[in-house]
Fold:
Amino acid sequence: MTDHSLPQATEGVIKFRLDFHPALPPASAIITELNAWRTLLYRLALTGRHPRRYGGLAYGNVSQRETQDRFFISGTQTAHKERLTVKDYCLVLDFDLQGNWIRAEGPIRPSSEALTHAAIYAANAGAKSVLHVHSPEIWEWHRSLGIPATRIDIAYGTPEMARAIQEAMLEGDAPIICMRGHQDGVIAFGRSAEEATLCLVQHLGRAFGLASPD
Structure:
C-alpha cells in the first residue's frame, strides 16, 4: 500500500511530497562502507543530537548512489543513533526536483533532506555519496574557507534549496557547500563516502585553525 503521509522527523519536517512503499531493508553489504563513515561523523558530532543545539533535535543524514537516479539514504528519525543498521536506510527510487516529489521504499521513510541529496546526484554524475552534517565552525567560517553558500532565505528540504545547491556546485573548487538557510548545515559529496568525509574533516580542521585565538 502506498503511503502519502508527511511524518514529523526529529531532524526536520519533510517538505516534499512523498510516495512511500514499505519494503525490506537493503542488503547489509550495500551500505557497510557508507555506514562506517557515518559512524565517524557521529563521533565527530557532525551528526547526532545535543541537548543545547537546535532545540534538542537530531541532525545529519547520509546517502549513497545505487544507479543514475536511485540512491540509498538514512531514514528520518535516525540521526540520534550512534550506529545505524540496514533497517535505518531506504532506497529512493525516483524524484522530481521541480515537482517537489520523491518515491521511495524500505523499512523507513527517507530523511527530510532527501531532495537536496537528489539534486546533487542529478547535477553531478561523478557523485557517489552525499553527506549532510551540521558544523558551526565550517558554517561560520565558510567565506574564509572559500566554500560556496546558498542564500539565507532558502529553507532546507525545498525545491528552492535543491536548485540553490546545484547552482552552488558550479562556484567552488571543493565538493562542499554551506546551507546558509539551514543553521550550521553543510553538504559534502564525492566519489565515495570516504572521499566526502575526508573533505569535511579537512575543512573542519581549517575552520578550527581560523577560530583559534592568536
